[in-house]
Amino acid sequence: MSSTPPDAAKAASAAPATEPPRLLPRAHSAGCSTHMSISAELPWTAPDAAFRALAGPGTAFLDSAARDARGAVSYICLAPEEVLALNDAPYTALRKWMAAHPQARIPPAWPFAFKGGAVGWLGYDIARQAAGIKSRFAPLPGLPGAWFGLYTTLLGFDLAARRLFYLGPQPRLADIATRLGRPRAPLPLPPLSWTAEMTAPDHLGRHERLRRYIAAGDVYQANFTLRHTAARPPGATLPALHLALRAASPAPFAACIDAGGCGLISASPERFIRLDGDGRVETRPIKGTAARAADPEHDQAAACALAINPKERAENLMITDLLRHDLGQVCATGSIAVPELCAVESYAQAHHLVSAVTGRLRPGLDVFDLLAATMPGGSITGAPKYRAMQIIDELELGPRGAYCGIIAWIGFDGAMDSSIIIRTITATPDRLYAQAGGGITWDSSAPDEYEEAMLKIAPLLALGQV
Q1: Contact present, 248 and 66 (Cβ < 8 Å)
Q2: Of residues 41, 115, 287, 315, which has the active-site annotation?
């Protein structure tokens, strides 16, 4: 989850590895902390190494593991002041919680968009429930519908300039600097044994049932997914799982949220919504997939074929239009624009078609109004959204839980950035869940859709294999 830091921060040279922390101007106490908030520049440490040194229950790692224009910053958020776990009414509860912790003055030398606030997940199932859609499934045991920690202690990584900054109470700085300077052992991952909940023939039958709904005019498109599960053995820690996944499948919106016993390990390529302090909104739906090829010539040909594929483009256009509608509920009249349409972006395992929809939030509305109008995201529901969610619940074999919801930071200042929870492992105290799928339209081929789902889930199922 990222925001590009100011050019001024990029222009300065990185601190030498032997340089001690440099304290920067003091500020009033931030968030709930009883200590004064300071900012300091620390010797450069790569985000994955810093995470190995600092990870523990309550840690949130927003990890731009595959850098691009939207992945120039990573954050490690430490020692939450408070934790909020929810199973209903998420937007009202989050608004009240955040309102009780107003923005404190932040040291001007802190160069990043996220200046402290809430970090966590808002799951698909709690958002579906808030949208008025009932489910035939019980929630995943041991996993809150939404979980957020309130963070005032942050590390911010400017990946382009290789600069590392600390924000938080001064008494915590020395310990963090010491831990960053210690040697870091690899985090071993025990073997995992994944089991598919849906066979290929069952997928075929459910795909055909979905196409009958499309033929009847119920929906134009619905996102249909399948799931694998594994027992969670001792030693399958969230940091070990995340570092293994980021090595296999780096992504610009990767994240590890350790809620203590449960959590998420994500290699998501998809931004959901970004909201800046001036009310500017951007969403970037992904629809349209082609596998990467080892040979550069074949890989480029696959990307070019995807760019002109009529079925994939139609799928993307439907969801882009849905998101234009969703943003139109809360954005100023005339502010909605589509600056990018069906652009090809390439990631570790796949090329994708990505569009961008922008707008400006209407005066008097806030980030929680924006989430209420747009959750769950259109790229992982379908169109029309309400009926698509009903059909998804009928055809899938279990609850989605957090999967297809969002991971987000929500600043004390009301800004936000968020990603769609795809390419993600959900961890409960005793089980792991991996899920993948895609948008089904009338022109979809069941074998192709099954193959696409397996392409997307492959890096997750490879974890813990020997």
Answers
A1: no
A2: 287
State the CATH architecture for 7-461: 4-Layer Sandwich (3.60)
Q: Give the pLDDT score at 35.
A: 53
Cis peptide leading into residue 171 (ω within 30°)? no
**Sign of the four-CA dihedral 114, 130, 377, 142:** positive
Percent of residues in the chain assigned helix, strand, coil, to nearest 5: 30, 30, 40
Nearest-CA neighbor of 104 among 462, 413, 356, 415?
413
Question: Which string of DSSP letters, residue by residue, matches 60-122?
Answer: EEEE--S-STT-SEEEEEES-SEEEEESS-HHHHHHHHHHTSPPPPPPTT--SS--SEEEEEE
H or E element in which residue 169 lies: strand 163-169
> Which of 270, 396, 449, 452 does the annotation list as catalytic?
270
Provide the 3-class DSSP secondary structure of residue 441. Answer: coil
Q: What gap in Å lies between CA 420 and CA 240, rounded to an integer?
A: 22
The token duo for 330 is: 């809360």
Q: Closest Cα partner for 73 from 21, 168, 16, 9?
A: 9
Residue 20 DSSP code: P
Q: Which residues are CB-contacts of 110 (< 8 A; sequence separation ≥ 6)?
A: 24, 39, 156, 165, 167
How much is the pLDDT for 367? 98
pLDDT for residue 71: 67
User: Could you tell me the residue ranges of all domains in the chain?
Assistant: 7-461
Number of neighbours of residue 8 by Cβ within 10 angstroms: 8
Return d(Cα 330, Cα 324) in angstroms, integer. 11
Burial 411-429 (b: 16+ CB within 10 A, else e): bbbbbbbbbbbbbbbbbbe
Residue-level pLDDT at 68: 63
Name the residue among 280, 102, 188, 207 with its Cα closest to residue 448. Answer: 207
Q: How far apart are alpha carbons 388 and 396 in whole angstroms?
A: 12
Token pair recorded at residue 294: 């080892």
Pair of tokens at residue 36: 């004064």
Q: Is residue 270 flagged as an active site residue?
A: yes
pLDDT < 50 regions, the chain: 3-34
**Does pTM top 0.85 for this prediction?**
yes
User: How do residues 63-85 score in pLDDT, each as one tens digit?
Assistant: 998 866 566 899 999 999 999 99
Active site residue 456: no
